Each structure stands twice: as structure tokens, then as C-alpha cells.
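Hi L.,

You mentioned the student needs an example of a multi-chain input paired with its predicted structure. This one should do, with 902 residues in total across all chains.
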Amino acid sequence: MRDVAVVAFTQSPSVRCEANRNETEILIPVIHEIKQQTGLATEDIGFICSGSSDYLAGQSFAFVAGLDAIGAWPPVSESHVEMDGAWALYEAWVKLQIEDADVALVYGFGKPSMGDLPRTMALQLDPYSVMPLWPDAVSMAALQARSCLEAGVISEREMAQVAVRDRANALNNPFAQVKGEFDVDALLAEPMLVSPLRKHDCSPISDGACAMVIAAGDRARELCERPAWIRGFEHILEPQDLGVRDLTRSRSTEIAAEKAGAHSDKIDVAEVYAPFTHQSILLERALGLGDAAVVNPSGGALAANPLMAAGLTRVGEASRRVWEGQADRAVAHATSGPCLQQNLVVVLEGN
Amino acid sequence: MAELCGIVGIGQTKHDSKRIDVSMAGLLREAAERALEDAELTWRDIDAVVIGKAPDLFEGVMMPELFLADALGGAYKPMLRVHTAGSVGGSTGIVAASLIQAGIHDRVLVAAFEKQSESNAMWALSIPMPFSVAVVAGAGGFFAPLVRGYMRRSGAPEDTGIRVAVKDRENALKNPYAHLHMEDISFDLVASSPMLWDPIRYLETCPSSDGACAMVLSSESLAAKAPTRPAWVHSTAMRSEPTMFSGRDQVMPQGILDNAEALYKKAGITNPRKEIDCAEMYVPFSWFEPMWCEGMLFAEPNEGWKMTYEGATAMDGDLPINMSGGVLSSNPIGASGLLRFAEAALQVRGQAGDHQVEGAKKALGHAYGGGSQYFSTWIVGSEKP
Amino acid sequence: MSEEKEPVEVLRTPVELDYTYSAGVSASRFLRAVEQGKLLGQRCPVDGRVYFPSRGSCPQHGVPIEGEPVELSDRGTIVTFSVNRVPSENIDLELPYAAIQVLLDGADTTLFHVLGECSIDDVRMGMRVEAVWRPRDEWTISMQNIRYFKPSGEPDAPFESYQEHI
Ligand SMILES: [Zn+2]
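Structure written out for the whole complex:
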């Protein structure tokens, strides 16, 4: 495989509601900043790929306006996935593998505050048998948390500990939305939101966008002093129906991590996209993280969850730890679909 | 060095306005199973799935590939979902081919579909947005002024569009999968059909269809085991540009010209009109045939209409275009681009039945979308590149 | 077992989702001006071309458009058009009508609107038009404050003057 590395990353501050700016306006400064940071102009970029969702935006072809933000002129080699930006990164990484390009720009954006997010997410479910019941996203996750608790593989205390850890980590992240010092017992005394989930078990609703530049070989070394080399990249999808999969583990993450080589050596830093606390515990196990691994130094999705950008943000945050020398080997994870249906794993190394 | 990608299986559904006899999963499986059967492979042989369709609002399901995972044999495999407006079918094929070319997978199933009857597509395209004035109804309202711009620039005879519409519907009569089978198609029938968006007549527009298309793509070593001669991907290209900016040429966008140049360069083609034996292009309104003949550099600027007029694009012409009947005869939007790509592959494999171009060795598949701003194309050949 | 029943072919699931849109910062400025009967464009800092309305960035050059707005005339030239005979739920106009792309004087981009007070047979590319505004007390934050454009009676603009905008 060709050596490809993450060399730059920018993001907007995640907020509960971007009342004034539309999606393109959220994206413009993020793209502008990454171009400034890298000194790249549109014609220096060989491929562009983005991730977003029409249903979040409430209109068809919502991603087209994203082209306005990048200044797609002269015409660009470009694609879009109706998925989190982390999968757009995958498509771009593949493109660089066939030497069609040496530098790629990837971005993701979402403004879920426009609609009723938990209800909108019900539209991901089987339209003939499940969706007509309108199960919302939090209730779906609660079903999974309940089965994990009943099976005895996690406890409510462990779940609260995840929230305390991530919110404390987020204190160092200027882009995070939910942060602070919290006490496990105090959190456990809070009322249930959707039993067995309390508010701290759920990620916030966030508007935001992020952008990333990846580059191959020497081009990467020119653009970044210590590039975060992509050493493994896999993603796996499970069937959706909750009745046909084991909800107490993340089988697809296990397979993806194994194939990406995450298990083969020690991991210094992990950025895990867990929209709910119990999912973080399942994912950390599936990734096979040792005790020494620092998990979610950015605060993770529990601190900021800009849908369609949050997965790509995990890769950006993990890469940052490699650039800054805090990690020699990092893993980033992204998820999509109800109850961790689809999972992606990237292994990044400094050498 | 990129690996070679061969097309070893091709399948599509019967396209129709309402396929209420099947679910979304059933529609996709109809196409996918035909592709697997053609390749003499099973679901087990597939390493990854790439799926494409146009806006989710057309079926009313957000990211439908998630609930379709098991129906598409995607369980515990990688699956990607592409969406690049009307060009999506083409882009989906290109993404799938790149997985083979990069050496990541050996066999990839690519599928694209649209089941417009599941929701209300006209509604999905025209949701009233606050702050904006609704002036244009549907895609025809958007493209009609551009067609008028082309007519003015090129001085093309006013019946050029009618001739394209007749030719494509005649071709569709030879394609059992086509949605429209108009036995009584004639110049007078098209000419007398009502003007919808002047200068576009009713019979110069595409239908709205349910349908799906699927292909099995294979690495070079596994393609050698295929029961039927594979089609080989010679080159692919994608170009996008903004919907609007000052001075943008909307009639003949730079994006398609750049796309054509990049595509031919990679394929080693210097004279596309001569070297390409037939082409399947995305022509949703009849006038886009002459326009895209110029865009794909088959004709000089403002002279694309001459190809239509002189019969060059007919089945017995020197560069047959839209042998399947094209988008004018079947338009399951998300699948339409992949159907163009698949028809090109069928032709060079000699599998196109009654609409086969004799001895076709190199064929173009072309798709476009948005406000004439997304382009995806591929060249396939009967020989390895 | 019970007797064979017809297969289920159609299942109706009404979906109702509410969204709150933001026009955005630059469109808000434009809409607030339209509310006062003014048409505001903005210059691209790279080539100085006037975008109407501005969307906050130049789509060609990918740079933010932040400079002072430019007030435009409500007269312009029909760059191209189509005659619409298709009914649509969201369009409240009598059929047939001409949908026109108008290049306002002083702008470098076109806008879609409709033509009034003109026979369908007379509309043509290059025709000069002027806005017909609704009564002032009906003005809102919408381009619908302009009811339609009508022929201004000026001589047609030459093709060369607007051809790059098609
Ligand atoms: Zn500009």
C-alpha cells in the first residue's frame, strides 16, 4: 500500500444551535483555515470528498452547497458519501492508493439543531416494520444499554465514569460543548432520561463542521513535520435488526480493529466515537485497548457530537496527538446507524 | 501502479413507474442476483458492497443502506454509500472500481437504485424553502432555459430534440428492461406532444421509474476465472463545479470538458469520435444528446446537433448513442448513471442482445447531475488496457 | 391456517418532521434589505464581480465575501427563459407563464423570476425588464415583494452583453 498520512485538521466549535449561520457558512471558515494552514489552493488538491445527510438538513441535495465553501474552480475531482466524514476519508484514502492524487481534502458537516434529531433518526430503521413505530434514537440506545446491564457486562457506575472522564478531558478542548469536573455519585443520583440512560449517558446535539487534509509520501512530509501515517483502515457493517446481533459487544468493531491491525501493538491514544456511555465501554473492549491507552483526550462525542463530522473529528483528534508527539501509535473510531451498526477503525502512527 | 478492474457480472431490473410487487430490498436483489448469476458467483464471494442512490427523501428512509445491509449481503462486510446528485450511479461505479484498482478488495458488488414510488419524488425535489421564490417546477423548469441557450448559440434546427426522442424510444423497443416501450413512437407523435417547459415537449422528457442496476467487479486474477469475457475498466473520471458563479457557462460547463480530457488522457484516446465505438450518456431531456456530444468532445462546439441530424448517433451510425433507450426510456434516478456504465460494459462484452452494436470494443458510460455540475464517466473495453 | 390473502403491496406511513431553517448571515442582510425594497449584492474580493444575492462566499474563488453591499437597480435583461406549462403544488401562478433568468443592472449573476404584463409569444432573450413591486404594506422578507418583472420598453440588449451569463 502507498504511505498516506493525515497532515492537517480544522473544526468549528460545536454548539447546541447555530442560530444565525447556515451549513455553508459554518463550513466556510473551516475550509478557509485548513487552506491557510497548509498553504494549499484548490488546484493543489487532487481529490475532494465530503460526508453529510440530506435528512439532517431537511432537503434534497443539501451537500451541493458545500461546493460553494471550497471554491470548486477550476472544476475538481470530487465525491460525496451520505455518511459521516470518516467514510469520506476512507474514499479519499482509496483514491490516493491508486495514485490518482497525492493530496486530498475531506470534510463533514451537520446541523441537527434544525430538526428533532432523535425522531429524525427513526427514519434509519426498516420502513415497513420498525420505523412506523417511531422508535427514537435515545430509546434504541437504551434498549442496548439495558441488555448490557442485564447481561452483567457493564454497570451504571462504569457508565457514569465514562461521562466524568470525557467531560473532564473536554476542559482542554476549546471546540467541545459539554465539559467540566463532575462526580460519579452525583451523576448517578440524577434522574433517568430514558431508563437506563441518564442525561450524562447521552451525547449532546451539536452543530458543526470539520475538514482534513491527507497526503501521500513526500507530499505528506512537506505539509507536516510529523505526519500521522495511516497504517490500517477498515470498516464493517452489521445487520440492523437488533434481534440478530449481540448487543453486548461490538462485533463489527472487533473485526475492523483486527483487520486494521489495531490489536497487533500497543495503542497510546484512542479517539472513540461513542454517542452513549455504555457504547464507549463496548468499543474500548472491541478495540482491545490496554490500561495505558489514553481514551478520548478531546472529550469524544459525549462532549461534542456534530453529526456527520463527529467521526472524522475522532480521526483528526487522534492525528493531532501523533503530530504533537503525545502518541506514537493512535487509533480512531467512527460509528453509524442504531446501536453501533456500522464501525470504522483507523490506525495512525508517527513513524 | 493501479490494479486492473474487470466487470464480470451485470444485472438490472425491469424498470417501471411503480414496482409495487417488490420492496426496496426485493428491487435491489432482483438486480444483484442477476449480476451474481451472470458472474456465476454467490453472495459469499463478495468482499465489499458499494451502494448509490439519489436523495433519501425519494424513498423516505434515511441512509437506507443501513436497513438494506443483509438484503445486499453486506452483513459483516464493508459497505459504502455514495450520493453525488444525478451523477451518483456513475460515481458509485467509480468508487467500487477504485476499491479493486487500489488492491483493497478482489470482488466488489456495486448496486444503485431508486424506488420513487415509495415516496413522492416531485415533492422531495420541490420542498418549499423559506426565503426563496418558487418559480421553477421540477428539473425541466431548471434545464429548459439552458436548452434555449444552446439552441440560440448553436443555431440547431428546432426538431433536433424530437429526432433524439424518437431514436431513443426506438432503441428502447429492443431492450426488454426499458420502462417505456412505445410501439407507436414517431416524429409526429413527439412533435405534437404538449410543450411542458417550452422549448421542452412532454415526449422529450424522461419518465419517472423504479429500478435498480448492479455489477460485480473483479480483480485481474479472479476475472480470469469468469465464465464470460469480462469488460475492462480503461479509465474513470469525476469532475464537479459550483452550481452558480458569475460568468459560469451553464450550457457547456467546464466540468464536462475537463472530465472528458482527463478521461481520454488516462485511456490513451486521442480521437474519441473514432476510437470509441458507442456511448451511453445521461440524456434526461432530448436536447442534452447534442450538448453532451460536444461536452464529451465527439463534436466541435455548437456542432453536436449535426451528429443527431445526420444519424451518426443512431444504431447504424458511426457513434451509436443510448443503445438501451437511455434515460429518456427509463429513469430510476439513483440507478440511471450506473445503468449507463453497465450498458457500456454490456456492449463490449457482446451481451447487449437486440441493441448490440456489432463488434463494439470500446464504450463510454457517462452520467451528470445537479445543475449540470457533477460529471462521472468511464471507458470500458473488451481488451485489457 | 387461514385462506391465502392478497400480498401487502402498499403501506402508508405519514412522515412529519419540522425543521427550523436559518437563512444565514449574508442572506439575512439581503432579506432585511428586500423588506425595505432594496436589492443588495456583494462584491467578490478576488475579481470584484457583484453577486446577487451574496451567499457569504464566492463559489468560484472559495473566499469569504464580507465587504460593503452594493445596491442594485430593479431593472435588468432577460438572459434566458422557459415557458412553464406544468402545474406544481408549490407554485401559485396561472399557467402558462414565463420563468426568466434576469441579469439586474449592476449585478454579475442572474436570478430566477417570472414575467408579467407580456404575452408569452413576445418574451425573448435580451428583452429589457423592470420589477413590479407589491404594495408596500405587503412587503415581507422575501423576493416575492417583487410580484414579477414586466417589459420596460427599452430596446433589447445585444446578445454579446449577456451571453456569458447563460
Ligand atoms: Zn470570486
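You could point out the following to them. The longest strand of chain A covers residues 228-237. Chain A touches chain B through 63 residues (CB under 8 Å).

Best wishes,
N.
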